[in-house]
């Protein structure tokens, strides 16, 4: 039997870092939502006790470094599953882009293997397993829109943001999340985006206030390392996006656009100098 799971990309409408913890992680406040740009996982049971990963994308690891491999290994160990699995990753989400592609693949593998092997694991337990693989994995398991606190693993579901078009543009650089957090200095944390303003904008369904409340403290690090990310933000703003922000640790920049008539102009304008541009919707 084969089963399929979608692994959508996430964007951060807000990303704040409160402090560095003693365990090395950062205490964060993030408002995250999913968009309809997704990898697709095909999973098939193997009689031999082994995990095999394949992908059409030539640029991701296919061994134990792959997060879907790690998810399969973890669930097999914890639930004493002696069967194997073949997982094919049809990658559509750009890699090392700030869109949580790897985390979403891990989440989809956990959800899918729970179904494939009829393990009956609750969503809460899946999230606990996911947190062992990465801070964004629990959110990728539950999806929708959430406020994430702690190191990103404590989730509080919130209502859907006002619907709009989302233009994603990824400049041709790969950014390491660990490197960006490692370079974050206390002086860059003197001003913070307002989580309460963003929550209130979403609750009131105010698109304008949601755009005005976008904020990401990691921008100061990534933009100083890669000025092209700042230039991309400016271009998106100039082309008419209503709100513009870098997602996660970057380098992907997203623009929120309320009017469909503006989307083609922004897309075409960006495509002139950026090869990876996507027009998507938020998943509600
Ligand atoms: P985040 O927003 O959670 O920081 P990201 O979008 O910046 O994630 P990923 O696309 O998850 O980054 O990739 C980060 C690294 O993880 C890459 O260097 C890649 O080699 C590795 N990786 C492991 N498994 C996967 C996977 N299934 N898909 C993509 N990358 C993977």
Throw out a few tags for this protein.
single chain, 30% strand, Alpha-Beta Plaits, globular, Ribosomal Protein S5, domain 2, 2 domains, kinase, binds adenosine-5'-triphosphate
Outline of this structure?
This protein has 284 residues and is an alpha+beta fold. The protein has ten helices and eleven strands.
Give a description of the structure.
The chain has 284 residues and is α+β, with helices and mostly antiparallel strands. It has 2 domains: 2-157, Ribosomal Protein S5, domain 2; 165-281, Alpha-Beta Plaits, CATH 3.30.70.890. Helix content is 35%, strand content 30%. It has helices spanning 67-78, 101-116, 123-133, 137-142, 177-183, 195-204, 207-212, 219-225, 227-239, 260-271; strands spanning 2-20, 26-46, 51-55, 84-90, 145-149, 154-157, 165-170, 215-216, 243-246, 253-257, 276-281. The strands form 2 sheets. Strands 1, 2, 3, 4, 5, 6 and 8 form a 7-stranded mixed beta sheet that branches. Strands 9-10-7-11 form a 4-stranded antiparallel beta sheet. Helix 2 (101-116) crosses helix 3 (123-133). The longest helix has 16 residues, at 101-116. The model has no long low-confidence stretch (mean pLDDT 96). The structure holds adenosine-5'-triphosphate. Adenosine-5'-triphosphate is lined by residues 60-61, 65-68, 89, 95-103, 105, 136, 177, 248-249. Adenosine-5'-triphosphate (ATP) binds at residues 60-61, 65-68, 89, 95-103, 105, 136, 177, 248-249. It is an enzyme of class 2 (transferase). InterPro entries: GHMP_kinase_C_dom (IPR013750), GHMP_kinase_C_sf (IPR036554), GHMP_kinase_N_dom (IPR006204), IspE (IPR004424), Ribosomal_Su5_D2-typ_SF (IPR020568), Ribsml_uS5_D2-typ_fold_subgr (IPR014721). Belongs to the GHMP kinase family. IspE subfamily. It catalyses: 4-CDP-2-C-methyl-D-erythritol + ATP = 4-CDP-2-C-methyl-D-erythritol 2-phosphate + ADP + H(+).
């Amino acid at each position: 039997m084969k089963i399929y799971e979608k692994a959508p990309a996430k964007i951060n409408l807000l990303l704040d870092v409160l402090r560095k913890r003693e365990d090395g992680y950062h205490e964060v406040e993030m408002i995250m939502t999913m968009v309809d740009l997704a990898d697709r996982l095909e999973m098939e049971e193997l009689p031999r006790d082994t995990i095999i990963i394949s992908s059409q994308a030539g640029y991701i690891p296919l061994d134990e470094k792959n997060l879907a491999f790690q998810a399969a290994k973890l669930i097999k160990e914890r639930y004493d599953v002696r069967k194997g699995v073949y997982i094919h990753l049809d990658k559509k989400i750009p890699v090392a882009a700030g869109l949580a592609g790897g985390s979403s693949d891990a989440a989809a593998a956990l959800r899918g293997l729970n179904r494939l092997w009829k393990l009956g694991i609750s969503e809460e337990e899946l999230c606990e397993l996911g947190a062992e693989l990465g801070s964004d994995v629990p959110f990728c398991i539950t999806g929708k829109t959430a406020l994430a606190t702690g190191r990103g693993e404590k989730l509080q579901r919130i209502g859907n943001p006002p619907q709009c078009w989302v233009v994603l543009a990824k400049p041709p650089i790969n950014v390491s999340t660990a490197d960006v957090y490692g370079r974050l200095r206390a002086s860059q944390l003197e001003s913070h985006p307002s989580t309460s303003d963003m929550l209130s904008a979403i609750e009131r369904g105010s698109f304008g206030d949601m755009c005005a409340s976008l904020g990401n403290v990691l921008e100061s690090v990534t933009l100083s390392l890669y000025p092209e990310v700042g230039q991309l933000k400016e271009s998106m703003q100039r082309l008419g996006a209503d709100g513009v922000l870098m997602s996660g640790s970057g380098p992907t920049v997203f623009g929120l656009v309320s009017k469909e008539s503006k989307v083609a102009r922004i897309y075409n304008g960006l495509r002139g100098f950026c090869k990876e541009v996507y027009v998507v919707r938020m998943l509600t």
